[in-house]
Amino acid sequence: MLDYSLLKRLCTADGISGDEGEVRELILDEIRPFADEITVDGLGNLIVFKKGKKTPEKKLLISAHMDEVGFIVTHITSDGCLKFEAVGGINDSAAFARSVKVGKNKINGVVCAKPVHLLSGDEKKKCPPIKNLLIDIGAQSREEAEKYVSPGDSVVFESIYEDKDGRIISKAIDDRFGCLVLIEMIKSELMYDTWFSFVVQEEIGLRGAKAAAFTVAPDCAVVVEATTASDVPFADGAERVCLVGNGAVVSFMDRATMYDKEYYQSALECAREQGVKVQTKTMIAGGNDAGAIHTSRGGVRTLAVSVPCRYIHSCESLAAAEDMEAVFAVVKAAAEKILSL
Amino acid sequence: MKEILKKLCIEHGISGSETEMLGTVRELIGGFTEITTDNSGNIIAVMNGKADKHIMLDAHMDRIGLTVTYINDEGFIKAEPVGGIDLRTLPGSPVRINGRETVLGIICTVPPHLSKDSEELSRDKIWIDTGLSPNRVKELISPGDAAVLCSTFKELLNDRVSVSALDNRSGCAVLIKCAQLLKDKELPCRVSFVFSSQEETGELGAGTSAFSLAPDEAIAVDVGFAAQEGVPAEKSGRLGCGAIISISPVLSKQVTEKIKDIAKRLSMECDYEVCGGSTGTNADRIAASRGGVRTGCISIPSKNMHTPTETVYLGDMEKIAGLLAVYVTEGGAENA
Asked: Which CATH architecture has domain A4-68+171-339?
């Protein structure tokens, strides 16, 4: 079974795109005794080599991203409030009236909201855009606010973590879950030599993965992710994309990648052999670091295995431990299988 | 004040479920007041009950929330608002449902690939996702159970605090602080601290308690709009101004003047909320009770009202508690 107390520590660590240091330190502390080679590159990617029982002909990279979505302070108003922008794809509703933590010292802040009593009929029916929102840290002037925060400071969600009956609610399951899978593999005995990358800046354009793939120069890659499950009352049939509780998600295509067909089939076979549930997406939606990795250098054969996750990119998302176990089983098996192809 | 407020701002006690607050109120002032409850869910704490002149201090203790109406075959929970919920605060928010156990859930959002810019929020489309199996959900949760948006008590700079339910647990905290200030004093009158029910759904508790108690004078303490982005000065008071004093045709001039007079003596700056008609608070109901009750209304300036990030200044609350204590020790408004 996966180490869910470690998942909690990973998810509750803060690390928006471009500010992944806290997450990287946590991962480093976990893997140091088990890795054969560790480097941190110029962007902050953590690249790890672990020897297996055998050295394969091909070079395999398994990748997950460390960053999460959040916000960044852009300006301090004369009365001491903070203007901010989204880092990564966040809906307006995910920011409205939330509690947040600002900057290195994690100053408490709240996103302001004009009271509902004073709104016109139309204003009541829609969340205001993030660009119109302000964060209040209690400062009474720009001068006072500047003692605690600066433009460029990261803003992260205040969130709850709960594991109840194997259902996990947390921020940043995307993609601290992927990080957990990689850590568990590094801690285990591997059949083949394997490269791992914990990459930065996925949420703002797959930037870390591009650099890591260049450096490692793999022949084949597996991306471990969390992907949007839309099995909610507002969606039916194919619109649901994938379902929480229906196992590992293996994609044949998304908005960033046409996956290697043989790898896709192998992953499905692995799931069957391991006796775990597997599903594919019922819509061509989303994208992940595979988009940067499969186009790296002269091309990389790539597979993505994801945990289905509802309300991704919000202050709270929801996933099931049984699906996480299924992803772990498929990734472990597929990593060996694709090296033997 | 901070510690009182922390204890009161619990994720319980939406309109109609106020008895969940009884333990907390008892803990805070049960030692030196006589506490009773009534048929409407009000909690009433009395000091110096034998005196003739009777002053009622009111703060509603109910908070806005949601109520479970239906559970579907997949275990998703349909809910409807209780009180003036701001629909904009709902999508993707964590909620606690007070069922057989307290269960954490998330308000369902329309997935990004299906949402359209024209999509409107609606009180008829509120679904809660607990992620638990349908059987487990039905075992733990039933129609009628209350749910509230999760919110933890947060301290901002300059003694500002933020948490949901400051409307009107901050008013309750002011009453409790006032009672503590009066604890060992000899009082010229009887005081009833009324923690009233169902303000958010129509000021029920204020009406029934004012009828039963039949006070000579009353002051309602609630939250009022504080100036912030989008809320102009003429519609608000400043956070940190001390108190927002209501001036309205439905309120007693004597009581209002007495409040203003004490504020002046305490060097409180105060802002005014002048209403052409009723105040939109419990004061309206109390003033019209029985043969009429001389009533005043004081508000604590609050930002982001009816959201999980409601924000008040502890200093304003301290000052209002002090003002009320003077009002009581001086026996209320003159010539009453």
From this structure: 3-Layer(aba) Sandwich (3.40)
Which residues on adjacent β-strands are paired with residue B225? B302
Taking an 8 Å cut-off on Cβ atoms, the answer to whether A110 and B114 are in contact is no
Complete domains list, chain B, with CATH: 2-63+164-329 (3.40.630.10), 65-149 (2.40.30.40)
C-alpha to C-alpha distance for A125 and B236, rounded to whole angstroms: 23
A239 carries an active-site annotation: no
In tens digits, chain A (341 residues) has pLDDT values of 999 999 999 999 999 999 999 999 999 999 999 999 999 999 999 999 999 999 999 999 999 999 999 999 999 999 999 999 999 998 888 899 999 999 999 999 999 999 999 999 889 998 899 999 999 999 999 999 999 999 999 999 998 999 999 999 999 999 999 999 999 999 999 999 999 999 999 999 999 999 999 999 999 999 999 999 999 998 899 999 999 999 999 999 999 999 999 999 999 999 999 999 999 999 998 899 999 999 999 999 999 999 999 999 888 999 999 999 999 999 999 999 999 88
Question: In B26-124, which ranges are E strands?
Answer: 34-37, 43-47, 54-60, 65-71, 77-82, 94-98, 102-107
Contacts of B108 in chain A (CB under 8 A): 232-234, 311
Sign of CA dihedral B158, A316, B71, A122: positive
Q: Do B229 and A134 touch (CB under 8 A)?
A: yes
Instruction: Specify the DSSP class assigned to residue B237.
Output: B
User: pTM for the full model?
Assistant: 0.93
